[in-house]
TrEMBL record:
Name listed for the protein in its UniProt record: PTBP3 protein
Residue stretches making up the RRM domain: 36-120, 159-235, 320-394, 437-512
SMART domains membership: RRM
GO molecular function, one term: RNA binding
PANTHER family hit by this protein: MATRIN 3/NUCLEAR PROTEIN 220-RELATED (PTHR15592)
Positions of the UniProt region annotated as Disordered: 1-34
Lineage, opening ranks: Eukaryota, Metazoa, Chordata, Craniata, Vertebrata
One Gene Ontology CC term in the entry: nucleus
InterPro entries: HnRNP-L/PTB (IPR006536), HNRNPL_RRM (IPR055204), Nucleotide-bd_a/b_plait_sf (IPR012677), PTBP1-like_RRM2 (IPR021790), RBD_domain_sf (IPR035979), RRM_dom (IPR000504)
Organism the protein comes from: Campylorhamphus procurvoides
Length: 514
C-alpha cells in the first residue's frame, strides 16, 4: 500500500465510520460538519502521497495523510478547521484534477487522524513533513524524502522548462504564478529553440527547484495541451539584462525594458498583468478546465472576470493590499505587522479593523511582494493563533480623515527608514526565507557579548537553544530559539533594537540551523 496504513482509523472519540457514512459518501453528498479531516475519493492508482498533500498546501499546513490505495481514497488532515474550510470552498466549484482525472472531496466524520500501526504510517507522515518543509523553506526535506525512498540530489536552482503542444499563449506571468508556489522565483527567461517554447527559471533555493520539478514535470496547464517537461539546467545562475515580456529579474526593478529608454514601474506585477488578457481571451472563451492537479499556482481561467486566478489569490492582478485575519486582538499592533510583513517587502500602510481587531489590512509596495508575503506567512502561528493571509478586494488603504476616531489602528509607514528593499539590486532580495526557529542577526556592536544577546532574547520570552557568531564577521550571528512562533515574536520585538550610539540590531529569518 506504498506505506499507507490499512489499520482502522479512530476518531477522537474512538468511534469508527459507520456504514451509513459510507453510503452517503458513495452518493456524493457532504452531510458532515466542517472538520480538519477531508475525505478524497476517485484517486487514480498511480497518484502519490506527495500529490495528495499538494492539494492542501495552498490553504495551510498539512498535518497528516492516510491513503487507501486499493480503494482510490485518502484522508487528508489540515492543521486547522479554517484551512480545511478554505480548501473545501475552493474545490467545491472547481474540481481538482490528478493525472488528468477529477477527484472529489468532502468533510470526513473524523475530527483527526490516528492509526494503530505507527510503523506503516511513518512514511505518509514523512511525506507530509517533507512537502510542508518545502513550503516553509526548511532543509528538513532531505530527511523527509529519504523516508519515502529517495534522497535530494545535488542539483542546482535553475530549471529548464519545455512546454509541449502549446495551443494557447504562454506568458511569463503565467509561469511565475505556477512556479512561485514552490519557492521564491528570482529570474525567468523565455525563448524558442528547435521550434519549441522553452524557459529557464531560477529559484532562490535548490530544494524548491527540486520539488517543483518533482511535482510539475509531465503535468499539463490545460487538458490535452501546454504540457510541462522540466529538467535541471547546467547553468548555476541566470543573467538577465532586460525586464520585459520575455525575461525578468525579480530582484531588480531598475533594468531597462529593452529599447534602452524606459524602465519598468516598481510594481512589476501590474506592468506584466496586461499580458494575461491574450491568454484569458483564448482560454476563458474555450472554457478549458485546468489539468494541473496541483493548486500551487495552477492557472484557472475565469471567463466571467477575464482574469487569471490561483487558489488563495482572490484579489485583482496587481493588487498589493493583503487581508490578514484570525489575529490575536490582545497582542497585535500595526507596528508588529509592519515589522513581520516587512521581511518580505516594503510595507506602506497597515490598518487594524476598528470593530474587528482580529482582522487587518497590510499594503505592500507592489503585488510581487504581496504574493511573497502570502507564500511565507499564510498559516503561520502568531501570538497563539494561525494567521490567514490572502489578497484584499481593496487596492489601497485609506488613512483616517481628520477628526475621525481611529485609536492609532491605522499607520502610514511609506517613508519608514526600516524598509529592507528600497534599494534596487539590494542583497536583501536574495536573502528572503520563510519563518524559521533560527534568526540571522546583523549590525551587532563589538561591545555586545554572547550573554548580552542571549539575555536580550530571553527577556522577550524566548528560549535560546543555540548561538553562534560568524567567524569572518563578528557583527553577524545566528541564534536558534525554541520554536518558529517564538522566533516570529522575537523578530517583531527586537528588529531595530537600539543598542545605543545609533546602532540598531537587524533581525531576519535564516535558512541555516546551528
Amino acid at each position: 500500500t506504498s506505506g499507507a496504513s490499512n489499520r482502522p482509523l479512530t476518531m477522537n472519540n474512538s468511534t469508527p465510520a459507520t456504514d451509513n457514512e459510507k453510503k452517503k459518501i458513495k452518493g456524493g453528498k457532504s452531510p458532515c460538519s466542517p472538520s480538519r479531516v477531508l475525505h478524497i475519493r476517485r484517486i487514480p492508482n498511480d497518484v502519490t502521497g506527495r500529490e495528495i498533500i499538494s492539494l492542501g498546501l495552498p490553504f495551510g499546513k498539512v498535518t497528516n495523510l492516510l491513503m487507501l490505495k486499493g480503494k482510490g481514497q485518502a484522508f487528508l488532515e489540515m492543521a486547522s478547521i479554517e484551512a480545511a474550510v478554505s480548501m473545501m470552498n475552493y474545490y467545491t466549484p472547481a474540481t481538482p484534477y490528478l493525472h488528468n482525472q477529477p477527484v472529489y472531496m468532502q468533510y470526513s466524520n473524523y475530527k483527526e487522524l490516528r492509526t494503530d500501526n505507527l510503523h506503516n504510517q511513518a512514511r505518509p507522515q514523512a511525506a507530509s513533513q517533507g512537502v510542508n518543509a518545502v513550503q516553509h523553506g526548511s532543509l528538513a526535506i532531505t530527511s523527509a524524502l529519504a523516508a519515502e525512498g529517495g534522497l535530494l540530489p545535488a542539483q542546482g536552482s535553475v530549471l529548464r522548462i519545455v512546454v509541449e503542444n502549446v495551443f494557447y499563449p504562454i506568458t511569463l506571468e503565467m509561469l511565475y504564478q505556477i512556479f512561485s508556489k514552490f519557492g521564491y522565483v528570482l529570474k525567468i527567461v523565455m525563448f524558442t529553440k528547435n521550434n519549441k517554447f522553452q524557459a529557464l527559471l531560477q529559484y532562490a533555493d535548490a530544494s524548491n527547484a527540486y520539488y517543483a520539478k518533482m511535482s510539475l514535470d509531465g503535468q499539463s496547464i490545460y487538458t490535452g495541451c501546454c504540457t510541462l517537461r522540466i529538467d535541471f539546467s547546467k547553468l548555476t545562475s541566470l543573467k538577465v539584462k532586460y525586464n520585459n515580456d520575455k525575461s525578468r529579474d525579480f530582484t531588480r526593478t531598475d533594468l531597462p525594458f529593452g529599447d534602452g529608454q524606459r524602465t519598468l514601474d516598481a510594481s512589476l506585477a501590474t506592468a506584466f498583468a496586461t499580458q494575461n488578457t491574450i491568454f484569458t481571451s483564448y482560454a476563458g472563451a474555450a472554457g478549458f478546465a485546468p489539468s494541473l492537479g496541483f493548486p500551487q499556482g495552477a492557472v484557472t481561467p475565469s471567463a466571467a472576470s477575464g482574469q487569471m486566478t490561483i487558489p488563495g489569490v482572490t484579489g485583482i492582478p496587481g493588487n498589493s493590499v493583503l487581508l490578514v485575519s484570525n489575529l490575536n486582538p490582545e497582542a497585535i499592533t500595526p507596528y508588529g505587522l509592519f515589522i513581520l510583513f516587512g521581511v518580505y517587502g516594503d510595507v506602506h500602510r497597515v490598518k487594524i479593523m476598528f470593530k474587528k481587531r482580529g482582522i487587518a489590512l497590510v499594503q505592500m509596495a507592489d503585488a510581487t511582494q504581496a504574493q511573497l508575503a502570502i507564500n511565507h506567512l499564510n498559516g503561520q502561528r502568531l501570538y497563539g493563533r494561525v494567521m490567514h493571509t490572502t489578497f484584499s478586494k481593496y487596492q489601497t488603504i485609506q488613512l483616517p480623515r481628520e477628526g475621525q476616531e481611529d485609536k492609532g489602528l491605522t499607520k502610514d509607514f511609506s517613508n519608514s527608514p526600516l524598509h529592507r528593499f528600497k534599494n534596487p539590486g539590494s542583497k536583501n532580495f536574495q536573502n528572503i526565507f520563510p519563518p524559521s526557529a533560527t534568526l540571522h542577526l546583523s549590525n551587532i556592536p563589538p561591545s555586545v557579548t554572547v550573554d548580552d544577546l542571549k539575555n536580550l532574547f530571553a527577556s522577550k520570552g524566548s528560549t535560546v537553544k543555540g548561538f553562534k557568531f560568524f567567524q569572518k564577521d563578528c557583527k553577524m550571528a545566528l541564534i536558534q530559539l525554541g520554536s518558529v512562533e517564538e522566533a516570529v515574536h522575537a523578530l517583531i520585538e527586537l528588529h531595530n533594537h537600539d543598542f545605543g550610539e545609533h546602532q540598531h540590531l537587524r533581525v531576519s529569518f535564516s535558512k541555516s540551523t546551528i
